[in-house]
Amino acid sequence: MEDNQTSNINEIKPAKDTLLVLNIHNNTIEMVKGIDKEGNLQTVPPENKKENDQLVRVDKHGDLFSNFFSNFYRQLKNPTHFNFFKVLEYDAVDTAKDLQQYVDQASPEEREQLKEYEILPKNTNPLKNQKTMENNTDNQEYRFQPEQIDWKTMEKFGLTQEKLEKMNALDPLLRGYKTNTLIPITINLGAAVSKMDVRLSLQEGDTGDIGIKLHGIRREPNLNLKFLGHEFSEEDKKNLMENGNMGRVVDLVNPKTDEIIPSVISRDRLTNELVAYRAEYMKIPDEIKGIQLDEHQKQTLLEGKPLYLEGMTSTKGTTFDATVQFNADKRYVEFIFDNNQKQHHSQSQKENNPQNQNQHKNSEPPRVFRDKELDDKQYEKFKAGETVYVSGLVDSKGKEYQGYITFNKETAKTDFSFTNPNKLREKAQPSEAHKAQTAVNTDGKTNEATKNIKEPLQSKQQEPANKQQQEQQKKPARSRGRKM
């Protein structure tokens, strides 16, 4: 018995981390106990700390602490009112007192230096991120280095560092993203060689090694099966198929840890793969193309919902309207361009409804076609139903192309053609040289120069072609049709 007591007394408990908090409204440093049901922060003043006071205790392991603090921060009411600092549990009281003295005497410049020691959740607070809308990953830090990539495995797919650089595919890989376009690879199995297009990404394994993941093309996502514990509703399926984003935050289950993770879901439009993204990591800009977002609009986007914005200004200075929404695959707020082009069965059923057809007639033509914004002159012609030439379009392989678009007011869709449909119609019409032939042979009209000729007129014929027809023309004959 005595040995057991001695053993318990002498047992060395592993060190844990805890949190100190600075309330920016009253400049008070306290120790964190937790969060109550209403999301209010529970704290203990260091001078009133008792032995039985239970502080927040977290394992020192980096990932465990990061995951804990991200969830902690998300549940907290008014998190921006507090600055948090991570310290050893055993040093918490002394550190809190020292930090309070520093805060009481610090100048504004010295207070600013405290931010170097402040901790924030992963990717920081979503409401305080970018000032402008990001449509690429240029401002993201590199997560991997080229030397970490298993180039021997890459070579088995017919890929090298130089080849990926030429395809502009290496940069997004190093930033932790999938490649922006489909990459052609070759899989040599000895007896069989398979070629396919995939998107690539890099993933860190449990042992720290960097693996290569292939995202192959699927015919369509299987939305009838549960996805990480979530069962798709009919509205979910419709949204994913029509614009690629499910449109709401749902609780997903991590299959390895059983952790419940509020997330948004999108469909990779290149591969039809379903992609989930933690809601706590979502970044919402303060401004989108000249439009300052208010808190309600930001919250709408944080909930995964689409947001329609009017009066945005393009890089060319023209104004346009569009829907924006957070995309889990791209990890940023994207423009939803020209939804009328999305071909979906449920949509076609709606178009067969007379009521919907009347609504189509009143639909406003889109300002943007396949990511290409029309200028004012183009848009006026397009809006009036005229055919407009558009250049600088980019296909899924990154190649530029051009063509002609016309807005169909009956279906509210944009018709595209590589050749000018007006020119095709003009070619389909008879030229001046063929008008007499068409009028006489097809429309039953008469021509004074050929009205008595019994044979059908030949191509480009507008007068008697031989002596026989000349004799026929001299003789009076019954009229074969209306006078031209």
Automatic annotation (TrEMBL):
Compositional bias ranges of the Polar residues kind: 349-360
Domain DUF3945: 285-338, 372-418
Family matches, as InterPro entries: DUF3945, DUF4099
Record-linked Pfam families: DUF3945 (PF13101), DUF4099 (PF13351)
Ranges of Basic residues composition bias in the record: 475-484
Region (Disordered): 341-370, 425-484
Bias kind Low complexity: ranges: 458-471
Biased composition (Basic and acidic residues): 361-370, 425-435, 445-454
Domain DUF4099, residue spans: 144-224
Protein name: DUF3945 domain-containing protein
Lineage summary: Bacteria, Pseudomonadati, Bacteroidota, Flavobacteriia, Flavobacteriales
